[in-house]
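User: C-alpha cells for this complex, please. No commentary.
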Amino acid sequence: MRRLRIAVTADEAIAMSKEFYSKLLLESVYQPLVSFEQLSKANPSVLGVFFRYSLWLMVLPPAFALIGAANFGWRLGAPDPLLISADALLLVSIGYFLALIFGLFSTALISRWMASTYGANTSLGRHMALITVVGQPLAVASVVHLFPDVFVNVLVLIPTMIWSMYLLYKGIPIALETPPERGMLMASSLVGWLLVAAVSLLGMSMSLWTLGIGPLLGV
Amino acid sequence: MMADAKNFYNNQIVIRLVQFSVIWAVAAIAAGVYISAELLWPQLDFGQFWLSFGRLRPLHTNGIIFGFGVSALMATAFYSVQRTCHVPLFAPRLAWFCCYGWQLLVLTGGLSLLAGFNTSKEYAELEWPFDIVIAIIWVCFGIVFFGTIARRKIKAIYISNWFYGALIIVIAMLHIVNSLAIPVTLGKSYSLYAGAQDAVVQWWYGHNAVGFLLTGGFLGMMYYFLPKHAGRPIWSYRLSIVAFWAFTYSYIWAGPHHLHYNSIPEWVQSLGMVMSVVLLAPSWATMINGVMTVSTAWEKLRSDPALKFIVLSLAFYGLATFEGPMMSIRSVNVVSHFTDWTIGHVHSGALGWNAMITYGTFYFMVPRLVGRELYSTPLANLHFWLALAGTMLYIMAMWAAGVSQGLLWLSVDQIGELSFSFKDIMASMAPYYALRLVAGLIFLLGTLLMAYNLFMTLKGQQPVRSAPPLMQPAHGVG
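Assistant:
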C-alpha cells in the first residue's frame, strides 16, 4: 500500500480543507486509498461533509430507482414487470432516500462510538467522510437501478459491495489512525452492524407492504 | 514431579472427533452443493431415487447438524471440560463408545435416508430405531460430561460448561419427547401426536434444536475458545451468566413462530413471536461479550489466523440472531415464510456462525493437541477469505430470491386475482440458484483446504500428553 508521507503545516491544512470535498468526491472513486490518507490529515465538519459530499451521492440511488421503476417497472423474474403507481413509487423513493440518510448518520455515530474501543480517531466528520467514501461505489453503481431487473441489479451490486467491504477494511486503519489489527476488528464490528441494517431494511419494507404501502399484495 | 499416567487429559478422543467432524463437513457440504445444482439441472438425479432432491436434502441437513456439528461439539466439550475442571474425562471408555457409536449412527442413519426411510419431521427425519440409539448415546455423552464435572477440582463451573450442559439436557428432552412414536415396521412409525399438536411439538423440537444445539452448544465453544485465543478472561463474566439464564428461559417458547398463519391458536403464534423478539437481548449480550473480549487482544491477530474466523463468526451471529426475531414478526413472516430468504437466514447462521467458529476453533485446537505449528498459515488465511466470500454470496443471493418470491407470490391485480403463476416464478429463480451454487462451491473449496491443512498438521504426530496443572489456582478450588 502506498502511503503519502507529507509533512502538513497549518497553512497547508487550511488549503487542504478548502479543496477537500471536491478532491474527495473525485479521487475516492479511482484512488480511494489516497483519499483515506488525506482524510487522516483533515478534520472536516459534519455539516460540511454532509452537504458538500454525502448528500449528492445519496440522491443518486432513489433517483435512479424512481426513473427506472416508473418507466420500465421492476422485473422480479415473472414475465411481466411489476408496475407500481407513480404516487407509491415517489413515496418509496423518498423512503429510500430517508433510509440512506438515517443509515449514514447512524453508521457514522456507531463508528465513532466504537472508535474509543479500538483506539481510533473520534472526529465525527471524519467518520462521516469515511463511511461516504466506503459507500460511494454503491451509490455510483446504483445507476443499474435504471434497468430495474432484480437479477441484473444483484449481479452488479454484489461485486460492488465486496469492493465497498474491502474499502472499509482498508480505510479504517488509515483514515482513523489505528493499527491494522484493531482496524480489522472495528471493520468486522461495523460489518455486523451494516448486515443488521440491511436486513432491517428488508424487514421494514415487508412490514410496509403488508400495511398496504408499496406493491399491491393479497395479505 | 510427574503427573500420574491416568491423570493425563484424554486428547486422542478429541483428535478423532475433530477428524470425523471434518469428514462430515466435507461430505454434507458436498451434498448441499449437489442438491443446489439439482435445482438448476434436475436431470442430475439420473433417474435414481437415492440421488433425488427429496432424499439428499435430509442427508445434507442431518450430515451438517449431527455429523459435523455434534462431532465438533463433542470434541470441544471433551477438550474444554477436562481443562476447566482440571481432571481427565470421566469414564473414558464410555466416551470412546460415544465417539464411534455416534459416527456409526450418522453413517447408517444417512444411508437409511438415502434408502427413503423418513419420518417427514424436519431435522428429526431418522426412523425410530435410530431415535433409540441417539437417545442411548446422548445419555452416555451426558454421563461422561457431567461425571467429569462432578469430579472437578475447581469449585466454580465455568460458563462454557453451563452451555454444554444445557445442550446435553435440553436436546435429550426435545429428542425423546418429539420422537415418541408408534412403530409399525422396522422402517416405519407414526408420531404419537396428531394434527396441530404434532406440528407444535415438532417445532418446539425443531426450533430448540437450532437454539440449544446450533446456538447454545456453539456458544459453549465460543465461551471457552475465544478467551483462550485472545489470552484474556471473558469481558464480563456476570453478563455471560445473565445471558445464559435469559437465553435458556426465552428460547424454549419460540418454536411456534414456525407455524404463523397455521391451524394452531393465534395466541400460541403471538407468544412464539414475542418470545422470539425477547430472545434478541440475551443473544446480543453474548455477542457484545465476545466482541469486547477480543477487542482488547488485537495484537493476536498478527500471529493467529484462527482468531479472524471467530471475530467474523460473531458478526454473523449478530446478524442471524437479529434476523431470526425479525422474521418471526407476523407482518414480516407473511411475506418471508416459505421463501428462499429463510434458507439464506439458516445459512447465515450455519455458514457464518457455526462453521466459522468451528473452523477457527479447529485451527486453534489441532496444533495444540499434537504440539506443532499449523501446517500452513497462508492456506488458513485463504480459507478465511473463501469462507467469507462464500457466505456473503450465499445470503445475498437468497435475500434477493426470497424477496422476489414473497412479492410475486402475493401480488394481486385490481380484482384480487394472483398476478403470477407459481411455476413461472420458480422457473425464474434459476439465476439466483446458480449464484448459490457458486457460493456453495467457494465455501466447499475453503473447507477442503482446511481438511488438507489439518491432515498435514496431524500427519505422523501423536497427541501430546498434557495433564492438569499441579498447582491449583488460588481461587475456586473445591
